[in-house]
Every structure is written in C-alpha cells, then in structure tokens.
Amino acid sequence: MTLAVNIAQIGSNNTTFRNRIINGAMVIDQRNAGASVTATTANTYSLDRWQPSSSVSSKFSIQQNAASVTPPIGFLNYLGVTSLSAYSIGAGDFFSISQPIEGFNTADLGFGTASASTVTLSFWVQSSLTGTFGGVLRNAAGNRGYPFTYTINAANTWEYETVTIAGDTTGTWVGATNGIGMNVYFGLGVGSTYSGTAGAWGAANYVSATGATSVVGTNGATFYITGVQLEAGSTASPFEYRSYGTELQLCQRYYEKSYNTDVVPATVTQVGAVGNYFRAGPTYLSLTFAFKATKRITPATIVYYSPTTGASGKFADANGAVDVNASSYLSGMNFISAYSAITSGNGDLRGHFTADSEL
Questions:
Q1: 32 plus 180 within the same structural domain
Q2: Domain match, 194 and 294 both
Q3: Number of domains the chain is built from
Q4: pTM for this structure?
C-alpha cells in the first residue's frame, strides 16, 4: 500500500506561531466570562491579552460577543465595543484597544535593524459607523510608531481588512526578552497629540492615524473585531487557528485563576479551590497553588479569595466557619504560596487566587 503525501498541504497546515497575536479570535475571557465591563483610566485588561486605554473613564464598554451579532464565517467570538456617550475628543484624549506582544515573540522580525521584516496585520471588523478608521504599530518606549488606516464601507457589516507595514529599520525595539516587543493599537477616538500621518514611521507616541473616525464620539456606536492576526510577510494568510487548550495556555502565561474558565473571580464556589487540612490545631496553615502555565514574570499582582464568601484578600477557615486573612510568603513563575492564621482546633483552609503577570 502506497501512502500519497501532499507536501504543499502539510506546509499550509504547519502553524508554528505564525500569528503573533494571542487570542485574536477572542475566545478566552478569563476575567469577565462574557460580562460587559466599562473601560476606565486604569486600563485594566478585558478579554485576555486585550487592553482598553482611556484618557477619560466610562466612555465605552467592552464585552465578548456584545449584542450577540453573528460573527464572520469561521469565527464564534468577537470583541465588542459600545460607546457610552457622545464624547467630544480633545487634543490630548485617547481611547483604544490594544495588545502588547512579548519580545520573545517578535525578536525574529528584526525591528530596529537593517533587516527588519515587513509585517501584515489582518482582521475582521464591523461598526455601526462608516468611514476611515485608524490604528498604530508601536514600540515599547512609545517613540516609534506607524499609524495606519482602513475603511469601513458598510454599517453593521463584517468586512475583512489587511494592512501591510514595512519593518522599522531605526529606533529602539525590545529583542528576545519578556518585555514588550511591540504594541498593536486600534483607535476608538484619538486626539491630535496622539495621532500621526498614516503610512509612515514616525518618532512619536502615536495611538491612531490623523483624521480617523471617533467611535466614542457617537452615543451607542458599536465597534466589533475578531480574527486579528499579525504575521511576517507582505501578504495576509488565512487566520491561524490554534486549539482552545493551546490558546488558553498562551493566555495563562500572563493571567491565571483557580476558578473554572467560565467563572468570574470572587464567585462563591468550592470548584477549583485549593485546600489544606491538619489535625491537632496548628497556628497557621498554608496553601500552595501550582500554575498551569509558566508565567512571563513572577506575578506582579496576586489576589486571594474566600470560596465561601467571595471576599478578596481572604481564605476560608472551614472548621471555624469564618474568613481569615490571606498573605503571600513565597511566589515564582510556576507557583505561589500563601498562609493564614486559623481559628479552630483542627485546620481546614481553602482558597482561590488570581495571578497577573501582564505586560
């Protein structure tokens, strides 16, 4: 029996992290499990790896599959932005969604050298508004940026966009480190201070292109996006689908929780909680959480939760039927350990956690 092998087909299916964007299909939402969140000046992440930025709080909301419109063919999820007012953009205002990409995942592109690679950004987008929209590819220092534009021709219709960008041969770009290699921004309303001429590299802190449409300028305006891909080369290739488990682990390098994926932190549940039990009345008990994915850095922010009340900064002393203060005493890129003073003769300590190692 002869086995025929289609070499071309093998090549087309051989995906070796071609897409530098993580969660580009918007399938992972560990923090909110599909709930709507309002963007603030704190710039807290929304869907995994996607960060809203705002100069003024409460001007737009973000939600996975907002308004439940039908995604483009081949996708099940999208990131949905809804404007919460008709805000007039000032020169120093900025509203955007962005993804910082780790230097280990962009170093091969050679930005900042004579051999910088051309890259292509592709995505599906839908808006209640039409016209010219903008974004930027930018370095970590915020002093090299390439503003780009794309056109949405029909309202409330999914359109496929591609933007090809010649690699920057100058400037300072983070190499093979766990810092920010580059940022991809999609503007939602950006003032002149942070806008630049589209189609050229500039030495400035850009967030969008000059003249781009302001989503936050129209009350109730919507902006939906999915299938975001950034890859080397001058032509957009089909979206690189990775398995759900692979995409989740990529996200967990930056943020992880003990709760099930579809459960919002602070939910009252024992599922996923770690427990420790001792007899003979120890004064303190500890809990150690092993991470599912090695973190980018030792988590900068760790929050503990009681599984019986959902209170933050607490574990549950089940025997004493009370919450007790939780304190970290050891942490690394693969685990965290915390302890609590217990109140009962026997110790039965239980707790949840979230760990943030974001860029």
A1: yes
A2: no
A3: 2
A4: 0.94
What domain range is 339 assigned to? 257-356
* Cross-strand pairs, 146: 137
Along the chain (359 residues), what's the average pLDDT of each consecutive run of 10 residues? 30 66 98 98 97 98 98 98 98 98 98 98 99 98 98 98 98 97 98 98 98 98 99 98 97 98 97 85 87 98 98 91 94 97 80 98
The residue among 252, 284, 304 that closes a domain is 252
Q: State in Å, rounded, how far the first CA of the chain is from the last one.
A: 53
- Determine the pLDDT at residue 14: 44
Please give the pLDDT value at position 279.
64
Domain identity same for 157 and 20? yes
Residue 262 belongs to a domain? yes
